[in-house]
Amino acid sequence: MSLPSNDMMAAIAATRFGLGARPGEIDAARGDPRGFLAAQIRPEGADQPRGGEGSAQRLAQVSDYQMQKRDAKMAGDPKSPPVRDLQKDLRAQAGDDFLARARLGAATDAAFRERWALFWANHFTVSSTSLAVAAVAGPFEQEAIRPHVFGRFEDLLVASSTHPAMLLYLDQAQSLGPDSRAAQYQRKTGKTAGGLNENLAREILELHTVGVDAGYGQADVTEFARAMTGFSVGRPRDPSPHQFLFRDNAHEPGARTVMGRRYPQDGQAQALAVMRDLAASPHTARHVATKLAAHFVSDVPPPALVARLEKTYLDSNGRLDDMARALVAAPEAWDPAPVKFKTPYEFAISTWRAVDAQPSGIDKLAPVLTGLGQKPFSPPSPKGWADEAQVWCAPDALIKRLRFSEGFAAVVADRLDPNLLAQTALGARLTPPVAKAVARAETRREAVALLLMSPEFQRR
Amino acid sequence: MTAQVSRRSLLLQAAGLGVSVSFLGGSAFAAADGPMARRKMVVVICRGGMDGLTVSPPIGDPDYAALRGAVAVTPDQALKLDGTFGLHPALESVHALALKGQARVAPAIASPDRARSHFEAQDVLETGAAQVYGVSTGWLNRTLEVLGPSKVEGLSVGATAPLILRGKVQAASWSPGKGVDETGRLPTLLQDLYKADPLMGPAFARGLETEVMAQAATTALAPTPVSAPMSPGAAPQVMAPPAMAPNAQAIAGQRQGREAARKLGATLAGFMVQEGGPRIAAVSLDGWDTHAGQVGQLNTRLSYLDAVLDGLNTGLGDAWRDTVVVAATEFGRTARANGTGGTDHGTGSTALVLGGGLKPGGIIGDWPTLKQEALFENRDVRPTLDMRGLFKGVLADHMGVDRAALETKVFPNSADAKAVTGLV
What share of chain B has pLDDT > 90, as a percent? Predict the structure, then answer.
């Protein structure tokens, strides 16, 4: 498979591997497009959108809010201003987290690195289904995902599966071994006994590691769920409040068998041993390779590319930096035809990048994304956001993208040269019909809106 | 103008609640002759695994209360259907229809998939295939392929396109928001740029057409009572998922959410009653995956489901007698409550069948009971009815789909799933 010109490869590096070209980005990539991307891979992981509170501090605020709310309710004033303010504050912080991430995406010079991080954040999805998860969705990415995206897959898996955000989102924190000491005590004292919750165990198997066609059954899910009992989040009086806590007395005693392997370990080592084997499974290699190829190359990924990525995964023991390098090296990834359709988030971020700006407030960003079907930090299920063009290129979505583009152009176009913008945003991917349409537009605003809505800009 | 703005903002809230509507079927289809041409069908997909034992609790089944413990619906809460079954108290409108013989339940129904994976099971439900990865188009889309003349066009409402509607027949989509003037310069110039793009070209053209229909659907609706006046400033708060709202606001939020869901159902009806409007539609309702805290969550979700159905029923007016609505889910949940006030992924669940032209009758399919030996894999409600059989029956008897096409094209390899006939 022959490679296109350096001009074309530079445009592809910025638009397909990255998040859309900023002015000058395609020029910077022109000398060595593959090297431009490879230089963004680094052991310390992805960039961090913001400093500030970690998840423990956020969950402490949530707990404080819940206690004050209870007190206020008992006092007969559940809507008391301090309680309302606490809740507003938590929501505002979640909004700030999302805005910080969007601003990083719009401004970064290492946009391949950022796209790589977004891919893994979506692979290990958490969604704002409760105030607690909403409050830690941003910190989850910072703590569990971003540091590990160029390390070993197993480390990423363990970091995600032991983070409070995931443990709360998929109900693991409350899961109780039916024969654990805690359950026995509950029965003895006549309390309603808690029990097993298999939600996280199932999604780890199906979505995070081996995939649904790996041949596991209900018994494997249940056994893995039993192994994971005890993975929880510390309450205010626990030794590690609002952080990961292994509750030994909630752990189901005994050996477990998951996908044909026996795990005799005690305590939390048991589930960690299962995760180690899951991470090393050829099914996981296939699952991860397919998903990466689909995200970076085509909704229907070329089998030869999937096979090479799979081999890289197995040869490197699941090293994600090696996977990133293999993807950059793959000739299939440099096909000039842009077949991937930007998600709403990718589209919005790429518009800001094109004009060298950043979103200034969450109120500018959130309504747009919600209208386009991608509400901030709220994917519809543990599967995360869809990746296929068919899903996002719906008739109504295009009308809404047009509305957004017109509004965006109205703000930025009057101080821009649209012809130059078309060049810096698309480089060699700019086609004559689009260049002509931009050049012939009646107004700068019309020209910019046309460029943003062109197939070349909507696709990558 | 004001009325239109407030309708749109109400509808925007519905999007924030995880409710979306999709529909197919255009003017060419509706122009077909005969009484069959007026027939309409709506499929409501409840995503996440809706708990049938809460939707239509078998309060008369001797094992129900013990299996369910604290998440059981009690006999005094349930809205009674017969000696065994009731409906969840949030399903008031459905119950009122059931008393008139216009709503029935299928309490032990499932798709052919047994993996208990949301994503696999939803795919099977929407593609109509015997197993996952068999087919990449939706069965509602293939229905139109079989039914309609070659010019049939489709329509879907919602920001994203659901699988059940994807396929050869072109689907348009619409969701609440400010419209675009389809005669403006930009749309015209863009259509030119999209000529060579196989996805964007048709999608954009459908989007522009739908804008015109949307104007009519949102302005010419039969007036629907709004219980609580809404200030425009309240909208952003309601956009948050109900689970995030504090308790005091939750009740108000649920009332507003119910109103928004009702409005969405009525708007869909507004599209469907128009001359040349769509005859086949799909509605998605998210949020049924209740592993913990099930009682409160299902109370909210079922009140939204009830509201969408009520909005459809009222909005369709006389056309209700020509309409069949099926509400179904990808799988049911475990017969036993789990340890965290919820239930895990199961197998058999309940489907609701509604319509002005239904023949009266009891439950659809057999009730396997909840005896331990009757449970599927000692865990779930044992399915006695294949979902495809229900859909096939409605398509054949109500929509007049040719039986051979039903077996070969719409639901291939479904010979084991016998069509449930005689519903209408």
Answer: 48
DSSP string, A430-458: --HHHHHHHHH-SSHHHHHHHHHHSHHHH
Give CA–CA dist A397/A395, Å, rounded: 5
Q: Tell me, what's the pLDDT at B66?
A: 95
Exposure on the CB side of residue A132, measured as CA atoms within 13 A: 19
Domains in chain B: boundaries: 7-410
Surface of B (335-354) touching A: CB under 8 A: 338-340, 342, 344-345
Q: Is B156 on the interface with A (CB under 8 A)?
A: yes
Q: Tell me the pLDDT tens digit for each residue of B206-230.
A: 888 777 666 666 554 433 333 332 2
**pLDDT value, residue B21:** 60
Please indicate whether, in this complex, the C-beta atoms of A83 and B178 are within 8 angstroms of each other: no
Q: Which residue of B has its CA nearest to A68?
A: B246
ipTM, 2 dp: 0.89
B405-B409-B414 Cα angle (round to 5): 95
- Considering only CB atoms, B186 lies closest to which of A69, A129, A450, namely A450
Q: Could you give the angle at which helices A432-440 and B185-193 cross, rounded to 10 degrees?
A: 160
Residue B212 at interface with chain A, using a CB cutoff of 8 Å: no
Selecting from A69, A194, A198 the residue whose C-beta is nearest the C-beta of B344 gives A198
Q: Roughly how many angstroms between the first and final C-alpha of chain B, as a whole number? A: 41
Of A215, A275, A291, residue with least CA distance to B115: A215
- Tell me the pTM: 0.78
Q: Which residues of A35-55 are buried (b: 16+ CB within 10 A; e: fewer)?
A: ebbeebbeeebbbbbeeebeb
Give the number of beta-carbon pairs within 8 Å between A and B.
198
Q: What percent of chain A has pLDDT over 90?
A: 83
Instruction: For chain A, say whether B66 makes contact (Cβ under 8 Å).
Output: no
Please give the structure tokens belonging to residue A42: 């680094």
Quote the distance between the C-alpha of residue B335 and its chain's center.
24
Res B95: pLDDT = 97
